[in-house]
Design goal:
This protein is of the alpha+beta class. The chain is built from ten helices and 14 strands. The protein is globular, with a radius of gyration of 24 Å.
Length: about 350
């Protein structure tokens, strides 16, 4: 009887040990460039903790949007312990892999607190947007320089408006360190985050001006960047009135701001309605790459943004473009089974 009890206890303990810990998120990889090695590491730690927290919310089958209302300091308070592997520092670049254990009591406390606060989602029309005017001169980006007359034209037009939610960042050392002519066309939300945070802005419009003197035409390439979203808009203005260059620039600045003011609410709501989050369970690097390529090449999405990635789980956001077909049905046709867990949130198994 004693032997049976010991064997039974052994198997019971083994089963308990083999069960994965809900609050342990392993294999969160981050790679960050900062102004200094210390700044890069601090940003990487905050990013890894937030990514891990998003994965934890998904495991708990909670709405991950709640994370938007939780500050980095609050997430840090929820961390019981963390292990850092493969840490590499090269100049101002920092990369590492994090294993993060969250404290259940702190998680429960903060989530209950946020629920009791009954936080409402901010309307897009109340958001602050940065405008980053860039003049293209013979394929060279003029950004912070004095001869960026496009930036001056935008600033003058904004100063004439009684109410606007647009801000042009200052041409100072802090902003120049983050954004320059070499990275302005490629920068993503994470790269822009220091400037966005400084001005308490939710998103940014980078406005690339190209003036074709021969065709007497101005083209504006607008890159819109916010968390989980990046899209491009092309605007074109023909100088039909034969305006001088300065007058044309003034008119184009006004028309561009009018367009952004009138369309941002409609366009963003339309885009948000097509956004879907996928929680993907993965067993190996090969499985992850296979499902990632399959979704990206499915012709069902035109964006694939990785929110967080760990050893066994990925949280991604896609922009679904087939409005005529239910998303579950559309993905089922290409052999991907989606399980709906909430509004615009689905899980799938890549194993």
């Amino acid at each position: 009887m004693l032997r049976f009890f010991l064997i039974f206890l052994f198997f019971l303990n083994f089963a308990f040990a083999a069960e994965p810990n809900l609050y342990l998120v392993e294999g969160v990889v981050v790679n960050v460039v900062g102004k200094t090695p210390t700044a890069a590491r601090n940003t990487a730690v905050a990013t890894a903790r937030r990514d891990a927290f998003l994965i934890l919310l998904t495991r708990m089958e909670m709405n991950v949007n709640i994370a938007d209302n939780i500050a980095d300091d609050e997430i840090s308070d929820m961390v019981r312990s963390e292990q850092i592997e493969n840490e590499k520092i090269a100049g101002n670049n920092y990369s590492a892999t994090f294993n993060i254990m969250f404290a259940k009591d702190f998680i429960d406390h903060i989530l209950l607190q946020k629920k009791s606060e009954n936080i409402s989602v901010k309307e897009i029309t109340d958001e602050t947007h940065l405008l980053i005017p860039v003049k293209m001169l013979k394929r060279r980006a003029i950004l912070w320089e004095e001869n960026n007359d496009w930036r001056k034209a935008i600033a003058i037009d904004l100063s004439k408006r009684s109410k606007t939610r647009f801000i042009i960042p200052d041409a100072d050392v802090s902003n120049i360190a983050v954004l320059n002519r070499d990275n302005v066309a490629l920068v993503d939300y994470i790269g822009l985050e220091p400037i966005l945070s400084r001005y308490k802005a939710d998103a940014a419009y980078t406005l690339f001006l190209n003036y074709d003197e021969g065709e007497n035409k101005v083209k504006i390439d607008v890159i819109y960047t916010r968390k989980l979203q990046k899209k491009q808009i092309k605007l074109s203005f023909i100088n039909a009135d034969g305006l001088s260059y300065d007058d044309l620039l003034t008119k184009v600045a006004a028309k561009t701001i009018d367009y952004l003011s009138n369309s941002q609410n409609v366009e963003n709501k339309a885009l948000n309605s097509n956004l879907a989050r996928f929680g993907i369970y993965i067993g190996s690097l090969g499985n992850w790459l296979m499902i990632k390529n399959k979704i990206e090449n499915s012709n069902l999405v035109n964006q694939f943004n990785i929110e967080s990635l760990s050893r066994d789980f990925a949280l991604v956001t896609v922009n679904y473009i087939d409005a005529r077909t239910d998303i579950i049905e559309a993905f089922d046709r290409i052999g991907i089974s989606l399980n709906k867990k909430g509004e615009n949130f689905y899980t799938l198994n890549a194993n």
